[in-house]
Amino acid sequence: MSVDSSQTKLSIEDQTLRDGLQMESRIFSLEEKLHLFELISKAGVKRLQVGSFVHPHIIPQMADTDELIRTIGKSDSLVVSALILNDKGLERAMRCGVSHLNMSVSVSDTHSRKNAGRPAADALSSMTGLIIDALNAGLDVRAGLQCVFGCVYEGRMSADSVLRATEKMVATGVREINLADTTGMATPLAIRRMVERVRSEFPDVAISLHLHNTRGLGLANLFAGFEAGVKSFDTCTAGLGGCPFVRGAAGNVPTEDAVNMFESMGVATGIDLAALCEAVVYLETILGRSLPGHMQRVLAQAKGCVTVP
């Protein structure tokens, strides 16, 4: 593949503070989250999803999302985002002042019932209404579809069901659709085919990808999306994360590994790899274990020493 780096504009949204931490039983304090935010943003990441507005009894790690966003405050140089799943989440988001939202539902009925507590059709109908409310309030919204490439409970999702849900999302006025491989069941061919179908049906809507690395295909799927024309991807520093309502769906594409892949191909990310790996070291130290990303160890070995948490 020939890449013209001068014509390629790439966006990487790091979701360590949301998707990355939500599976961790060790609760991070507000101060630790703020330090992690500082490390990732100083490395040059310009889009960060820092939390979700869910009930703290369900995801205790996200209990302080409101306070975290208020403490971070407004920034002209960063996009600070959060995940919304229902009306109560939107109310909280509007109160704390976050300006960018990812408003997401599942195309899998079983996953929707586990994740959002309601059938997929009901969740979609409710979410489209909430998206309109958010847009009317002046918020930036990215609409999201979960389990696009398969569900461990229901198997493969049909492209037609994804397109029908996308059509309803697009009708709200959103200009970006995020296709999520929530269960990590995607393959490069499936990524390419789905992106091409969605782009063909909705040529004026930007597509972003949220890819899990459950089966070790995260980077390959990310590259397939890039080849298909996608220029915006969700990742997590050190490869943390996964969906707590999907059996075995652990691990996202490590931000540092995605940065290395793109930069090695001549595609600028604007992210300092060595600086980002400082966040990896911080996470491994706090969690007391090695994490799935590769590049921190590669850089450490190049310096003649391997960092051991």
Protein model, in words:
The chain has 309 residues and is α/β, with parallel strands linked by helices. It is 42% helix and 15% strand. The protein has helices at 16-20, 30-42, 65-72, 87-96, 109-115, 120-136, 159-170, 188-201, 218-227, 255-264, 273-287, 295-302, and strands at 11-14, 47-52, 79-84, 100-106, 140-146, 176-181, 206-211, 232-235. It has an eight-stranded parallel beta barrel with strand order 1-2-3-4-5-6-7-8, surrounded by eight helices. The radius of gyration is 18 Å and the shape is globular. The model has no long low-confidence stretch (mean pLDDT 92).
Give a quick summary of the entry.
With about 300 residues, this protein is α/β, with parallel strands linked by helices.
- The secondary structure category is alpha/beta
Architecture, according to CATH? Alpha-Beta Barrel
Spatial strand arrangement across the major sheet: 1-2-3-4-5-6-7-8
CATH superfamily: Aldolase class I
Low-confidence stretches: none
Strands, helices and their partners?
Blueprint: E1 11-14, H1 16-20, H2 30-42, E2 47-52, H3 65-72, E3 79-84, H4 87-96, E4 100-106, H5 109-115, H6 120-136, E5 140-146, H7 159-170, E6 176-181, H8 188-201, E7 206-211, H9 218-227, E8 232-235, H10 255-264, H11 273-287, H12 295-302
Parallel strand pairs: 1-2, 1-8, 2-3, 3-4, 4-5, 5-6, 6-7, 7-8
Characteristic key phrases:
single chain, 8-stranded parallel β-barrel, globular, TIM Barrel, alpha/beta, 309 residues
